[in-house]
What we know:
The protein is mainly alpha-helical. 73% of the residues lie in helices and 10% in strands. A hairpin with a 2-residue loop joins strand 1 (233-244) and strand 2 (247-256).
Amino acid sequence: MDQQNNLQTEKKIGAISLSIATAFFLTIFKLSIGFVSGSLGLIASAIDSLMDVLVSSVNLIAVKEADKPADREHLYGHGKIESLAGLFQSLIISLSGLYLIIESLRRLISGYELSHFPIAIGVMVISMIFTFLLVLRLKHVLHETESIIVGTEMLHFTADFLANGGVIVALILVRLSGWSFWDLAVAFTIACYILSQSLKILRKSVDELLDRALPQEEQKEIEEIILNHDSRIVGFHNLRTRKLGHQRFIDFHFEIRGEENFSRAHELTESLIKRICERFPGADVTVHFDPEGGE
Length: 295
């Protein structure tokens, strides 16, 4: 188990480190051309990348702390650090989205002009290529680790990819029509998307901090495994579940009929735990057996 957790931690750290490096490069790249061209859409994309640098840095620290093994002061481990980081991340992203909305409205009222279109478009095309490659890597790591932090990283850069495409379309439309409204419209759309994604991250983080139960379909699977595992099992009670990052926590009592031998009852318990862990790898399962009718 420890070896598996260490491997997953290394994968998460590697993915987030790559995110930081990519986001830092794209921030400098887009921000410099954004100021030269005057494009709010390009500046908005640069700010989003800068937020990714800051948030990913916090996430890197959080992952290293969250995956530390349990100790005498934290008997259930440090997994909720990852959820706290997700909560912090959602708030930071919301602020950047609100800034873009306010700036879009201000420019709409005061007016402005764009320039250096070919350079600006070239920057965004290069940004899309880098971002696409990063999203593919993050998606692969997310599939392996089920980490909430890696998931939020992937969402950020997916948003960046879409935003980059939107900025390119806006720049082309502005160049063809001479109407700067398209640039503002894209910036406003990016801001709304950022806000919607931050709310999703916020909800998932709060769910983990409040120990929300596993999805109904997963709980149903656990119940079926318990009842169908052995004919001596006639019922169960006190089923409690929760999830932190990739790890599920499951505990319950089950009732045994016609088995008074403690050793055989223990073997039945161990085989049931093994069966659940086969279905949910890495799960922390705590089980207590009772005689039929026991509580």
